[in-house]
Amino acid sequence: MSTFVGDRYRCKDCVEQIGFDLCGDCYNTCSKRPGRFNQQHTPDHKFELVKSTIIRSIMLRLVTGQLDDASAFANHDDASGISENETP
């Protein structure tokens, strides 16, 4: 599970399996912290924006209150056309 809210940036130059990621707020500061826990990250490394997944988008919308109901979770492949609140 990702603990990032908002944009996520991944270091393209770090070779450790754990990698080095920053949230959008940290990335947009002029200070790029060096790596921790024996990581080799340095402030001159380049970053790339990580594309969010649909699940991450839904979670972000739920956390920020931008998702009004559970309609995003509805099964749109249901060919019956009957909603769960209707009787057949």
Automatic annotation (TrEMBL):
Highest taxon of the lineage: Eukaryota
Keyword terms: Metal-binding, Zinc, Zinc-finger
Gene Ontology biological-process entries: proteasome-mediated ubiquitin-dependent protein catabolic process
GO terms for MF: ubiquitin protein ligase activity; zinc ion binding
InterPro entries in UniProt: Znf_ZZ_sf
Positions in coiled-coil regions: none
Entry keyword annotation includes Zinc-finger: yes
Name of the featured protein: ZZ-type domain-containing protein
Organism the protein comes from: Dovyalis caffra
